[in-house]
Fold:
Amino acid sequence: MKKVFFLLTTISAFVFACKTTKNATQAKTSPNMAPIAWKVLKAGNMGNAETAKNVLIKSDAEWQKEWAETNRRFDPAPPALEVDFDKNWVIGCHIGTRSNGGYSVGIKDVKTANGEITVSITENAPGKGCMNSEVITHPFVYITVPHFSEKKVNYSLEKVVKDCN
Structure:
């Protein structure tokens, strides 16, 4: 019981002590960009992409293949999450292999302007003083977006380092 209390106290102190600093600049955005509604479908750190990749998935067949690849380390693999491809598409962002459990990836926003979509991705990384699990991870995030007519999708990556001292 004392070990559990100590662990919870340590984790709480760690979480509340973290500070955020930005290590990279975000891609320039036009002031006339319009936001696009999106929803997180699934995020995690045990994907399977060893290098960074972004995907636009427009069909259930593509989604089944992508989901199977993302979850190939699991036996049995979880079933693919339901997506209504008559109305939505899936955008997936993987940041590749990372050296510990302190990394994650998220979507900041999705916007449109001048016939293009811009997906702003945030990679969160551990900074000074952070305690992390010593395990190789492959962070990813999948979101759903309504169908769009834009022909080009741009991805911008912002790296954010969270110091914990």
User: Anything to note?
Assistant: The chain is about 15% helix and 40% strand. Residues 1-27 have pLDDT under 50 and may be disordered.
